[in-house]
């Protein structure tokens, strides 16, 4: 007899980043974090703010698949205060993955925000909840609750791998994920990025007129009969 696969699989444990580390990313522009990560780290541009303009916290991942939210229901039940629930749907746009009732329960549990590569519904009531929501859009169509799905395992959301315990930061520019294993090094680089940005912004306010990138400047060819100034004699 062939046994049917269980509708849901749960990760044995979730290595959440310490709250004090997560808080150090709060309010930092996502563009700065991307620079600290070496120029990448953002989820696909179609994932944008639906409710609120920012969120920050460790990821609690779930793989819902298209047109289903059984795994998301389970993830809400596993959530802890400060979590950002990341629901992967395979970029499904045939129906919403959730609405105000389930996300209202998530808010009551202290969840810091919700991110999905799918759609959400009940916008007016979601807005009243105040829980930050980043998604690809909205649809009144409702999902099923059949499974299969996973909770706490790595998922692909917005074209990037997101693992439970990674730091998720979002603002008006988009959603960035800092891998759990790179948090410390990213914070070190972030301090350097912020210092450089502060200094450059000050120069712009003071009237800087030339882009500070020498490689982008035009190099004049030497006039006929004149030596090339770069040529050593």
Number of helices: 6
Low-confidence stretches: none
Task: Write the CATH architecture name.
Answer: 3-Layer(bba) Sandwich
Full CATH superfamily name: Ribonuclease E inhibitor RraA/RraA-like
Name the average pLDDT: 91
Q: Strand pairing plus helix content: what structural class?
A: alpha/beta
Helix content: 25-40%
State the end-to-end distance.
87 Å
CATH class: Alpha Beta
Major sheet characteristics = 9 strands, mixed
What's the CATH topology name? Glucose Oxidase, domain 1
Q: How many domains?
A: 1
Number of strands: 14
Strand content: 15-25%
Estimated radius of gyration: 23 Å
Describe this structure in words.
The chain is an alpha/beta fold and 233 residues long. It has a single domain (8-193), classed as Glucose Oxidase, domain 1 (3-Layer(bba) Sandwich). 26% of the residues lie in helices and 23% in strands. The protein is built from six helices and 14 strands. Strands 1, 2, 3, 4, 6, 8, 10, 13 and 14 form a nine-stranded mixed sheet that branches. Strands 5-7-9 form a three-stranded parallel sheet. Strands 11-12 form a two-stranded antiparallel ribbon. α2 crosses α6 (183-205) and α4 (100-108) runs parallel beside α5. The longest helix has 23 residues, at 183-205. It is elongated and about 80 Å long. The N and C termini lie far apart (87 Å). The model has no long low-confidence stretch (mean pLDDT 91).
